[in-house]
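User: Hi! I have a protein structure encoded as tokens and I'd like to know what sequence might fold into it. I'm fairly new to this, so please keep things simple.
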């Protein structure tokens, strides 16, 4: 169907009562659509239902009724996490009904140009950083999407002189059709979310939809150091603006000079530079001046710089937000220093690569707390980092035995396996006490699970908050 001209009077089903579902339901109702919201959770688990019903929106909880999806439905907007195998989604596809995520609806409503950011790791930090950079450049950013504010909520208030800065997951992008951001940013691609996508091909294809509808007048910011990102280049129509830590780009792009070399970290005082369309070089900032620690945050900074320049920021405006931005909650977040031991909350590390990057960012001896939802990995990719970076480990959750096995292969002598206690909070508190008992002054205790949280917690945010509270009460 056409958007948004033909929403008026059309029957639309919204699947899922999460924040994005509530937001898109309100938006579609406001535009005159006949909206039904459906959630398989029982009514008492859907506190948002009463708010929507008060507006005149129909809400059906407790399952997916047989007649929910029928030939009269013109559009289905699903929560990104709902699989395509779910009965109402499968029925809609069988009937030829468009099934999209909130991103698609927001795109058609948004008057502002969009910067879309995706990747396996670093999305939230980079998205927030771009917002800070555009703000410093006077370009009126609105930060939304997977980062917190639903895109539809933000799109309704966005004006043509704003920039919509949107964090986007592969789940969200998979459900897009016409979505075409003015600036598209692909940070990296690692093996993750295969329980949802089934194959890496589907996962990468979902990420690549970020570029699918871009034109030459748009900009594609890609990680030149990531081989999967590089493989997508021949299929991208937009103007490329690559970023690299390992190559001094001879085309327009953002890079580190001199380049990072294998096994060489911070022994040279490097600079981040921008080569413009005329191939002239502009100094942005020294790497040592970036406030966030870790090589992976240098990579995030390069991506944020490239996106901000593509949106019209000047090179001179970017140094201040690069040197003052202290990061995002649950992303290598400093918690406290107690008795000479520093505690970091990296609960957002829901895959191995994120944990490897966090370990690489810290130079002190590390006692690691890891483990969580089992998605089938053997976690052997953690072995080199375990051998080089950590002195002890405490494991919990469904993957505790798998990660403990990697620690044994790494030759660690201090491996503590914490069994699930009376509650998830108590289990994590016990893990923290065990980790603290293994420290000496100058050490770091790092929560970086390498796993999703859903075996024990509702979200990585809940896991991180409980960890921080436990640190403060040690």
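Assistant: Happy to help. Inverse folding works backwards from shape to sequence: for each of the 474 positions I chose a residue that suits the local structure. Here it is:
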């Amino acid at each position: 169907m056409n958007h948004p001209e033909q929403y008026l009077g059309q029957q639309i089903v919204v699947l899922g009562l999460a924040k994005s579902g509530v937001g898109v339901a309100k938006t579609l109702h406001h535009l005159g659509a006949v909206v039904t919201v459906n959630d398989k959770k029982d009514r008492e688990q859907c506190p948002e239902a009463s708010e929507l019903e008060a507006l005149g929106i129909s809400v059906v909880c407790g399952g997916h009724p047989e007649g929910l999806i029928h030939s009269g439905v013109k559009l289905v907007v699903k929560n990104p996490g709902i699989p395509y195998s779910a009965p109402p989604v499968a029925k809609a596809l069988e009937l030829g009904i468009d099934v999209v995520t909130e991103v698609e609806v927001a795109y058609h409503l948004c008057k502002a140009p969009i910067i879309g950011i995706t990747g396996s790791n670093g999305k939230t930090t980079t998205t927030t950083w771009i917002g800070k950079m555009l703000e410093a450049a006077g370009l009126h950013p609105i930060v939304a999407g997977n980062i917190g504010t639903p895109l539809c909520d933000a799109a309704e208030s966005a004006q043509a002189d704003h920039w919509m800065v949107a964090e986007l997951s592969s789940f969200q992008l998979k459900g897009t059709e016409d979505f075409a951001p003015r600036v598209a940013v692909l940070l990296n691609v690692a093996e993750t979310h295969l329980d949802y996508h089934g194959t890496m091909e589907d996962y990468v294809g979902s990420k690549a939809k970020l570029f699918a509808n871009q034109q030459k007048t748009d900009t594609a910011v890609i990680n030149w150091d990531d081989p999967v990102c590089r493989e997508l280049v021949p299929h991208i129509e937009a103007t490329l603006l690559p970023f690299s830590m390992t190559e001094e780009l001879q085309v327009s792009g953002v890079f580190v000079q001199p380049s990072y070399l294998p096994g060489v970290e911070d022994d040279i005082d490097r600079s981040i530079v921008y080569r413009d369309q005329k191939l002239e070089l502009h100094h942005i900032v020294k790497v040592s001046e970036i406030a966030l620690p870790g090589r992976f945050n240098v990579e995030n900074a390069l991506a944020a710089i490239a996106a901000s320049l593509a949106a019209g920021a000047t090179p001179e405006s970017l140094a201040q937000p690069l040197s003052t931005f202290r990061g995002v909650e649950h992303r290598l977040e400093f918690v406290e220093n107690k008795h000479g031991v520093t505690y970091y909350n990296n609960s957002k590390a829901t895959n191995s690569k994120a944990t490897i990057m966090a370990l690489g960012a810290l130079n002190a001896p590390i006692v690691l707390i890891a483990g969580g939802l089992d998605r089938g990995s053997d976690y052997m990719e953690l072995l080199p980092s375990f051998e080089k970076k950590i002195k002890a480990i405490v494991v919990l959750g469904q993957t505790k035995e798998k990660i403990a096995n990697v620690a044994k292969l790494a030759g660690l002598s201090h491996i503590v396996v914490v069994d699930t206690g009376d509650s998830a909070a108590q289990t994590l508190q016990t893990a923290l006490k065990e980790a603290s008992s293994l420290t000496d002054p100058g050490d770091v205790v790092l929560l970086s699970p390498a796993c999703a949280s859903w075996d024990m917690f509702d979200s990585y945010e809940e896991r991180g908050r409980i960890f921080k509270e436990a640190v403060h009460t040690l």
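A useful reference point when you look it over: The CA atoms of residues 272 and 285 lie 6 Å apart. Feel free to ask if any position seems puzzling.
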